[in-house]
Amino acid sequence: MFFHHEKLQQEKPENLTTYFAKHDYIHKPYFDTLKRLQIPIYKQDSISILMRAVDFSFIVEHMMINNSIMCELISRIEKTHNKLFFEAILESIDECQLSASGFSEFETYGNFVASQYGNQALYITLRQDRAAKSIISINPTHKQLEWYSKYYDTCCIETWIEESFIGKLTKYAVFRSISPYTWHKILSAKREPNIFRKKLKAKLKNLVCKKH
Questions:
Q1: How far apart are CA 109 and CA 193, in angstroms?
Q2: Residue 135 near residue 170 (C-beta atoms within 8 A)
Q3: Cβ neighbours for 187, distance < 8 A, ≥ 6 positions apart
């Protein structure tokens, strides 16, 4: 889910083709595959091979794709390997990574744009929550989403994230007076029962006091 974000409303440069959100995630096998793909990068009179071009990750919950640039990337892969792009990608992934995470279209496309069209991209930092399902459930209400948008720019309802009792609590306004950040901390502390009970008891006591 993508909430309103003021950075996307700013006046953009005339040559801007896309926005990218930044993340601090890194997974080495993605770049091992990228190196094996040998995708050419052309700059004036020089030719280089596509590698990691930035000090952040493009792995986020969303990505805007420029169709013509993506087609160009696919074309370069196919011309380099003389085969369909997905065949070239599969053959470039280390065998031990084939059933895991050996390739990222986000990292490949993002670093291609940064290397070949860096002056046409805008990189922004968004407040992201990939584990929102545990706080607002799999079917959040409008009020829950409205509440979440005050703290995050994007959130994701991942199938592999377990729902929790907090998702039911935050359907009620009184529990939305606690920030999602705090709920995440409480949920994490649940692994330490004594700490969890103390924190939850203190939060609920404060809520009751405020109501009276």
A1: 44
A2: yes
A3: 134, 135, 164, 166
DSSP string, 97-150: GTTTT---HHHHHHHHHHHHSGGGEEEE---EETBTHHHH-SS--HHHHHHHTT
- R_g (Cα) of the chain, nearest Å: 22
Identify the H or E element spanning 91.
Answer: helix 85-92
How far apart are the C-alpha atoms of 34 and 173, rounded to whole Å?
Answer: 48
pLDDT reading at 4 higher than 80? no
pTM: 0.74
- In the chain, domain spans: 6-124, 128-211
Report yes or no: 23 and 128 within 8 Å, Cβ to Cβ: yes
| 30-60 residue pLDDT tens | 999 999 999 999 988 899 999 999 999 999 8
